[in-house]
Design goal:
The complex is a heterodimer. Chain A is mainly α. Chain A is 66% helix and 0% strand. In chain B, helix 10 packs parallel to helix 11. Classes of the chains: A mainly alpha, B mainly alpha. The interface between A and B is large, with 47 and 54 residues.
Amino acid sequence: MTSLDTLPAPAAPPRRHGRGMSPVVRLSAGFLVAVVGVALLADWLAPLHYTTQNLAARLKPPLFESGGVTHWLGTDQLGRDILSRLIFAIRTSILIAVAGTLIGAVFGTLLGFVAARCRGLVDQTIMMAVDAQAAIPALFLALTMLAFFGNNILLFIVLVSIDGWDRYTRLARGLVVSEQESDYINAVEGLGASTARVMLGHLLPNIVAALVVQATLNFPGTILLETSLSFLGLGVQPPETSLGLMLGEGRRYLLNAWWIAVFPGLAIFLTTLSMSLFGDWLRDRFDPTTQRN
Amino acid sequence: MLQFLAFRAARAFVTVLICVSAVFIALRLAGDPADIMLSIDTPPDVRSYYRELWGLDRPLIEQYLRYLAAVARGDFGLSFGDDRPAFEAVREALPKTVLLGGSALLLALLIGLPLGVLAALRHNSAIDRLAMASAVFGYAIPIFFLGILLILLFALKLRVLPSAGSETAWHLVLPVVTLALPLAGRLARFARTSTLEVLGKPFIRAARGRGVMPLAVILRHALPNAAVPLLMFLGIEIGGILAGSAVVETIFAWPGIGRLLVDSVSTRDLAVVQAVILTVTVIMVAANLLVDILHILIDPRLGGFARGSGRPA
C-alpha cells in the first residue's frame, strides 16, 4: 500500500503550503547538511585537537575582534582553539541526539504496537506509563536518574531518549488501532500471515512517514535536553566536549571572553531552529495524517 | 459531572502512585541504599545498625509500603548537606520558584496573547509574520543561551540589571524575562491559531453581520471560546516552565527548587532529589486536574456553572 514514495499525490487542496522548499527551508536544510558534514568530518576539519592546550594563548579573542589569524574563533581559558572544540562538540552533540532519537523512536513505537495489538490490561498499563511520563518534565526525570545511577555515557544516551518516547507510543498506537480494522489487514491476516509479519511488513510501512516526521519534530527537543544537562555539568564530562558543556564552561568567563559561550550557543540555536523549520516543512509535505495547528 | 471529576481525581492519584513506585524501584535498582548513603569504610556493625534503622532488613514489600507511608507524610529522610529533613529544603525553595514561574507566565500571557490575537486580526500582515517568527524562536532557542545573552547585554555591557541573586525585585527581572520570552512566542502562535479558528465560525460572522465592531466581537465572543484550549495549553506548558526553572535558576543563582534539584543531583543528595521530583510530580498532576475542573466549569456543554447568556460554545 502507500509508503513514502507512493503517498497519495499530496491531497489536492492543501497546495497552499506548497510542495517545494521556500528559501528559508532550503537554508535550514543546507545548514543541517553542513552540521552533519562537520560531525562526520570532524577529524579532518578541525585545525587542532580539542584538548590541545596553549597556556601562552589563553582567552584570545576571535579574528574579527582583532585576534590572531591562528585562532579564528579565539581561545578559551586553557588556550584551546574554540573552532576546533566547536567542531568536535558538534560531533558529540549530534551523535548523542541522533542515538537518543533513534532509541526513543524504536522503543516508543514498539510499545505503541504492543499496546495496540494486545489491548486490555497490557494496553492500559502502557498508556498509564505514557500518562505518568507526561506528568514529569523530561529534564527532571533525567536529572533524577543521573542522581540515582551516577553519570556514564551509555546511561546518558538512554536518558536523552526520554524526551518523546511517549509521543511515538501514542502516535503508533493510534495509527495501528485505526489501520487494524481496514480491509487489507484483514485480508493479510486471513491469508495466515503471522502477527510479526502483519506488524512489520504491513502496518509499519503505512505509518513510517508519520513516525519519521515525529522524529524530526522531536529532534530539537532531544538536542536541547542533552545540551541542558551538559550545560548544568551533569551530562558529557570533560575531557570530552559537547555544545552544552562548552557553553557551561564559557559562562564563567562571560565578562572577559564572551566568545567561549556565544559560539556554541549559536551552534545549538541554529541547529534546533533549522531542524524545526525543516520538520514543519516535512510534516506539511509528507504526513497527511497530522495537520499543522 | 461529579462522576467525571471523581474519575479524573482517581486517575491523578494513580499517576502519582505510579511515579512514587517508579522512584522506589529506581532507587532499589540503583543499589543498596546503605552502600550509597554510608561511606565505604563504615564498620559492619554501624552498617547493620543503619540497615535496621532504615528497615532495609525487612521484606521488599514491607519496605515499599513503609516508603509509601513515609512519602505520604512528606518524610524523605535527611539531607546529606545540612542534616535537616529534605522536605524542608523543598518547602523553602518552592515559593521562590512559584514567584519566578508565576511572574514569567504572567509576562508571557501579557505579551503572547495580544500579539497572537492581533496577528490573527491582521492576517498576513507584518505583525502576523512577527508573531510567527517569535513562535519559531520560542520553540528553538535554548533557554540557557537566551539567559547568557541577556546577562551579556544587560548585566555586563549596559550594567543596568543584576545577573545573580535574589535580594531585590530587580534580581527577578532577567530570570523572568528569560523564562517568559520563549513561552510568549509559543503562546502567540497558539493564540493566533485559536483566534483564526474562532473568527471563521458562523456565530462570529453573524455578530459581525449585526454590526458589532470587530474588537467587541473578539472580547465578547471569540475570547471566551478560546479559553478552554488556552487552559489545556497552559496545563502542558507548566511542565516547560518547571523544566526551564532548573536551568534559569542555576544561571541566575535563584534559590528555587530547580536549582535545588541540580545542586542535589551534583552531590547525589538522594533524599532531596526524591523530595523535589515527587513534589514536582504532585504539582504537575494537580495542575492538570485543576485544568480539567476549570474546563468543566467553563464549558457549558460539560454541565458546568457557566450559564445564562446562551453563549454558543
